[in-house]
Amino acid sequence: MQLVEKMEAHGYPTNTVTYNSLVRGLCMHGNLKQSLQLLDRLIQKGLVPNEFTYSFLLEAAYKEKGVNEATKLLDEIIAKGGKPNLVSYNVLLTGLCKEGRTDEAIRFFRDLPAKGFNPNVVSYNIVLRNLCYEGRWKEANELLAEMDGDDRSPSVVTYNILIGSLALHGRTYHAMDVLDEMIRGRFKVSATSYNPIIAQLCQEEKVDLVVKCLDQMIYRRCKPNEGTYNAIAVLCEQGMVQEAFSIFQSLASKQSSSPNDFYKSVISSLCRKGNTYPAFQLLYEMTKSGFTPDSYTYSSLIRGLCLEGMLQAAMQIFMVFEMLIEKGYMPNETTYTILVEGIAHEGQMELAAQVLKELHMREVVSQHVVERLIMQYNLSAIDNF
Prior knowledge:
Layout: H1 2-9, H2 16-28, H3 32-44, H4 51-65, H5 67-79, H6 86-98, H7 102-110, H8 121-133, H9 137-146, H10 156-168, H11 172-184, H12 191-203, H13 207-219, H14 226-232, H15 234-237, H16 241-253, H17 259-272, H18 276-288, H19 295-307, H20 311-319, H21 321-326, H22 333-345, H23 349-361, H24 367-377
Helix pairs in contact: 2-3, 2-4, 3-4, 4-5, 4-6, 5-6, 6-7, 6-8, 7-8, 8-9, 8-10, 10-11, 10-12, 11-12, 12-13, 12-14, 14-17, 16-18, 17-18, 17-19, 19-20, 19-22, 22-23, 23-24
């Protein structure tokens, strides 16, 4: 609590909003106990916690200790005179669903009026998501039929839940019908609405329908995003790399940026989502088509390999930088930093420290980066910089 005491001593504002920032920060870093101490201090000072304070604490509690402990915490808050609102109960509802306790979640949801709260569209969406993804369509439809009124009318999120779950269960045409209904209802559709359908169509190897879906997206001014690229990459898993590349070629021609920048973005997007192998497959086709990978592209590949635990492959890719240097594409500080981080994430701290020291001696990473990595991964305990 030293930070709080210093703030108060120097006359900084100590209102509920200020405390909420601290509570959230502590919760994000797994310091639930300190967060609760901060809550007590808040109440002692006569400041009334708001719905955000409670939601941060309850979310941290169910993530750290499970939803049962979060429920006990809510009971304690109420016993101390706290007055949580529906947001807090929605957090607990989310916790039950995330733990796969759907039937308990439904009972909890049905008990909300007895606690003085009418479920809103967020409450409905939380339960609906679990029912749909578990394939409990009859119950999901019954819940949907209840969603009528200002506070619980279906939202964009509702439609996206339906589309995503239907596509996941292979009910692609039904998902398309829901998308059409969404459009007719004048809801704002985005790439998020289209991506599950595209992914399933790629899984089913229905390339013509994928192209049609993408054309419709662009016609409706829905810009393809990272999720779209990863959905298209599903074709690579089906052995249809040429078809996937052809689609990316078509998308590249419709972008405002250059094809090179677009391909860099695609490779980076795939690597961030654990699709590094398809990224390599597509990179081969892209280079045959005239794309020249640069240090950013290789940095993305190295990061992807490291995230997927393929450190040796990452080291091999790192070695091809000799070819890049010959062509005038110099690896940058970000590239080297990614490599060290990848090694550290694999738990090989001694190797990470040695590589970092070598890179620093070669003056390709700054002192600032060295200090950050030492602190972040406790490398100073292994090797003296």
